[in-house]
Design goal:
Largest sheet: 2 strands, antiparallel
Distance between the termini: 90 Å
Shape: globular
Radius of gyration: 31 Å
Helix content: over 70%
Strand content: under 5%
Family: Belongs to the binding-protein-dependent transport system permease family.
Keywords: Cell membrane, Membrane, Transmembrane, Transmembrane helix, Transport
Number of helices: 14
Protein name: Carbohydrate ABC transporter permease
Transmembrane segments: 39-58, 101-122, 134-155, 182-206, 237-257, 289-311
Order of helices and strands: HHEEHHHHHHHHHHHH
Region (Disordered): 1-29
């Protein structure tokens, strides 16, 4: 006798009733793979945090401790406010702050306005934008020492290119780095040329994100070039302008490379002595690490306070 045959519907039901060959899904395997993937990601993250803590946070904590300590023949002792008193009683202290403030103001006038103007010009051009972007960013790709030595050659009173150009127009030669009245301006010009490429590209990217309809509406209202910049371009790029202003102030307050290589640091009659250069002198010329740390702590507190006040005012404007 032959075995009873199943109808197609019953056969399909039988197949669905049978358990899968691989058995139920293994939740443990999926959880293990997820855990392994997350552990790998957290491992990379922890490594980055540890590196940042060792090279950034630890020096800040160490500087804070050194500001209230004194090392004598390998013995460390707490001296309280003695290092701060040493710094405040130094005649070069106030001169360094005045020079740093002057450099910051001049750098904002040139280094903040010039990159924005360059970005505006490049944005208005129809052809050659890529080549101009490369040309503007080229000084940033050069080593800072090479750029500073180039300007040192340009400023040379004997065979410098700037004095040669002045001579062609019948203008008197200038002692660019030897004159106390011109030394800081010369340093600012070199610093602006060296660092404006990055800011110009950031401004250019912000300008290219402005909708063209806004400019068309301004033109229909009869707005000229300056009015379009004032009423359209600046409001649309206010956020990036504010951020770049804050970053530039923080960077210029810590200037060191340009005056150190162009004028030897102090400059004629101390005209280019900055706060960071004074820190360098305390640490490596006077071997007074406590005073250097105290002055660095003052600079840190000033910049942190300025940044906090700036962020608070920006939030108040947004609200």
């Amino acid at each position: 006798m032959s075995a009873p045959s199943l109808t197609p519907s019953k056969a399909a039901g039988a197949r669905h009733a049978q358990p899968p060959a691989d058995g139920p899904p293994q939740r443990g395997g999926a959880f293990g793979r997820s855990l392994k993937r997350n552990l790998t990601a957290h491992g990379f993250l922890i490594g980055a945090v540890l590196c940042f803590a060792f090279f950034s946070w630890y020096p800040m904590v160490r500087e804070f401790l050194l500001a209230f300590q004194k090392t004598d023949r390998g013995e460390v002792s707490w001296v309280g406010m003695e290092n701060l008193e040493t710094v405040f009683n130094d005649p070069a202290f106030w001169q360094a702050w005045r020079n740093t403030a002057l450099f910051t103001v001049l750098a904002l006038v040139l280094g903040f306005a010039v990159p924005f103007a360059v970005a505006l010009v490049i944005n208005e051009l129809r052809h050659g934008k890529g080549y101009l972007r490369l040309l503007v960013y080229l000084p940033v790709m050069l080593p800072p020492v090479a750029s500073v030595l180039l300007f040192k050659y340009l400023y040379d009173p004997g065979y410098g290119l700037l004095n040669e150009v002045f001579g062609l127009f019948g203008l008197p030669e200038q002692q660019w780095l030897q004159d106390p009245g011109l030394s800081m301006l010369s340093v600012v010009i070199a610093s602006t040329w060296m660092n404006m490429g990055g800011a110009a590209l950031i401004y250019l990217a912000a300008l290219q994100g402005i909708p063209g309809e806004l400019y068309e509406a301004a033109e229909l209202d009869g707005a000229g070039l300056l009015r379009k910049i004032w009423h359209v371009t600046i409001p649309q790029t206010r956020l990036i302008l504010s951020l770049m202003l804050l970053m530039q102030i923080i960077a210029t307050m810590q200037v060191f490379v340009e005056p150190f290589l162009l004028t030897g640091g102090a400059g004629p009659e101390g005209s280019t002595t900055t706060v960071v250069y004074l820190i360098y002198q305390y640490a490596f010329n006077f071997n007074n690490y406590g005073a250097a740390a105290a002055l660095g702590l003052l600079l840190l507190v000033l910049l942190a306070g300025f940044s906090a006040a700036y962020v608070k005012l920006s939030r108040a404007e947004d609200e």
